[in-house]
Write the structure tokens for this entry.
Amino acid sequence: MKKFLLALVLTMISIATSHAEELSRPVVQEYRLEAGGGTALSTYLSPLAYDGKVFGASAQWTKVSPWAPETLIMQFATKANMRDYLNPAHTASMIGIDGMFTWGMQWRRRLPYSLQVTAGGSIDIDGGCLYLTRNGNNPVSVNASASLDINASLSWRFRIGKIPMILGNEIRIPSLGCFFSPQYGETYYEIWLGNRDGLAHCGWWGNRFCIDNLLSLRLDFGRTAMQLGYRYDYRSSWANSLNTRLHTHSFVIGIIPHGLGIKRKQAINSPLF
């Protein structure tokens, strides 16, 4: 009986400790809708640049590290886009879908005047396709890549009335990795038949450059928070005499369930500030 009671007490202590740890390391969840426009160029499909509308959804989960909650944060993010473009004469359309997953860690430092800076790295996997409706041969261009990224951010916490706010800028730049590109004029049927030479390429800033920048304002209402922002996304690659470029400008609106965590006692471990 004594052993049973001892085991029960230890279990309750373990549960309480785990719950306290979760409270001290809250997860900030951000869910966003994005809408805007941009241009697309894929010389595998056409020598012309197409422009049009882009709609997307993204999410991000941020939590402080259990090893160094004051100086280290972890992030997982995902994003998906739907693209609808027209050629300059508006006689042909190009549609596309793409998605991205990234996980990383960043070192952070709180500065005077309610500023915070972070810097670190992440791993990302990116994939998608463009479909040119007027092409009979080679109507689809597939994009796929994996890379190590450089991440950084700068944020400023302030208050208007009783509403705490965070104005911040987050930037992600892929550095080293690999990406897929078919040979010039090669069809995917030929690849399926076994012609797979020169499809994978080592990616660096000389043949693949991308930048993802999000400028946003977060407003904390306590139990929930809102995010408003602007995202600039640029992706480009050069391989096998083929050039691919995607420019996107998007307005961002998002919701953050349970708020930013900067009003509560555990704000010292808030992953955002």
Summary: The chain is about 10% helix and 60% strand. The radius of gyration is 23 Å. Residues 2-23 have pLDDT under 50 and may be disordered. The first helix runs from residue 2 to 24.
